[in-house]
Specification:
Layout: E1 2-6, E2 18-24, H1 29-41, E3 45-51, E4 58-63, H2 68-77, E5 82-84
Length: 87
């Protein structure tokens, strides 16, 4: 199951947006709800989703001028593992 979330600021998607991809240990709907609070509070995040079926529990974020380390810090503060997933 992949969970997709759009934020209110979706009007900027596509232009000047970056795609950030992370490996996490977000396991279920409860975890996703906790992370959703972080994602919706960050105005630079336009879209995000977590693929709970993927072995790496991939968090994909479409954002405007958001740095990988900012996401990693926020997710780790929430009590989850998070690392950049490279090609």
């Amino acid at each position: 199951m992949s969970l997709l979330h759009d934020t209110e600021a979706a009007s900027l998607i596509g232009k000047d947006s970056d795609i950030l991809i992370f490996k996490t240990n977000i396991m279920d709907e409860y975890d996703v709800e906790k992370i959703a609070l972080l994602m919706t509070e960050e105005p630079r995040i336009k879209k995000w989703n977590i693929d709970l079926q993927d072995f790496d529990k991939v968090l994909r974020i479409e954002a405007h001028h958001l740095q990988e380390h900012e996401v990693i810090t926020s997710i780790r503060k929430a009590g989850y593992r998070c690392e950049e997933l490279n090609d």
